[in-house]
Amino acid sequence: MTRPLVVPPGVAPVVLPADVPAPVRRRLEEAGTLLPPFTDAHVHLGLVDPAPLRARGVAAVHDLGWIPRVIADLAADPALPRVAFAGAFLTAPGGYPSDRSWAPAGAVEEIGDPSAAAAAVDRQVDAGASFVKVALHGTAGPVPDDATLAAVVERAHARGRDVVAHAEGPGQAARAFGAGVDRLAHAPFSERLPDALLAAMAAGGTTRSPMTWVSTLDIHGWGDPTPEHEVALDNVARFAVAGGRVRYGTDLGNGPLPVGLNARELAALATAGLGRRSLLAALVGDDPPAGLVSFVPGPAPARTDDGHVHAAWLARATVLDLADLRDPGFVPPTPDLPTDVPTDLPTETGGTA
Questions:
Q1: Across-strand partners of 89?
Q2: SS3 state of residue 137
Q3: What is the DSSP string of 38-107?
Q4: Cα Rg for the chain, rounded, in angstroms?
Q5: More confident residue, 300 or 237
Q6: Strands 39-43 and 60-63
Q7: For the CA atoms of 286, 291, 297, 303, what is the dihedral angle to 10 degrees?
């Protein structure tokens, strides 16, 4: 078997099925490194052509806002990454993104009170949603009041679903945490969060679990960092030091982002202090899709202490279906790499790191 990186606690190493032929195992060993499958935890498939995603390293996606029936149809397409989705954005009447031209009818549900919030959550879950998303964009219009936000969280948790929040504007990230929101769709970028709040988010408590952040750092400038990028980077760095859980996510569909693994996003996470194990944990998460693996051509970088080198290497991944490896004639692919992914990385013989 191709030898994977040493994986962090909770991330299972790749074990090939026993019936994968020996010649296929040898070709994989010689050609690259197998790792668990990677997830982009923030996309909007309705705004992109998702066809290249698997070839460019994304095995699964979390769609965080679109028309539920459209996303459910995409989730049924075996050629695409595995899709978990939130369904429609839940927002206050007139709130973000109800006024955005890119949000078609059905992609947004307005919730004006707790009963409307509970009913909207039920509709998303009944349509197949794995989680629900609430918009707390305080600088773009009205946001759900405290009672309505509490109703979203209470109903979603009663239905066994986490709540993801778009928290933007002063105080909104803290408000989401206080309401019991499970995940922030973006690393906070509106303000520098206090260390005490970061520690509380990372630790959770007796009444709630720790909060997870989805990175989405590259949307702040798309390679030309803005002040919001610097705020988000600082928050992520301190959140990670506090033990906070960060997941890789790009907000694919928001501006000129690559359709596939984003080398700039991974590099930004490395700049925030995530090393090789933390980067892998951010990419894999706790819900990797069964039957798929990541394949990175070439051995892993020799420098185990350099997150930037590993970020660039991981961005070269493609996705393999374990069922295909049972064909004795299977040959590892050469991924269609984006032009900003380096290929001249220092490596260590044997695909280990």
A1: 108, 133
A2: strand
A3: PEEEEE-GGGS--TTTTTTT--EEEE-SS-HHHHHHHHT-TTSPEEEE--SEEE-TT-TTTT-TTS-TTS
A4: 20
A5: 237
A6: parallel
A7: 30
Give per-residue pLDDT as tens, 299-312.
Answer: 888 776 678 898 99
H helix or E strand, kind and range, residue 32: strand 32-35
Joined together, the tokens standing for residue 232 give 């988000």
Calpha distance 242→236 (Å, rounded):
10
At residue 126, φ and ψ (nearest 5 deg) are -65, -25
Q: What count of other Cβ atoms lies within 10 Å of the Cβ of residue 206?
A: 4
Threshold 0.90, pTM exceeds = yes
Tell me the CB-side half-sphere exposure of residue 316, using CA atoms within 13 A: 21
pLDDT 10s digits, 165-198: 999 999 999 999 999 999 999 999 999 999 999 9
pLDDT of residue 4: 47
Please give the Cα distance from 249 to 232 (Å, whole number).
13
Q: What is the pLDDT of residue 178?
A: 97
Tokens of 181: 């929101």
Residue type present at position 122: D
Query: Which residues are registered as beta bridge partners of 43?
Result: 63, 252
**CA–CA separation, 158 and 156 (whole Å):** 5
Residue closest to 212 by CA, chosen among 39, 5, 92: 39
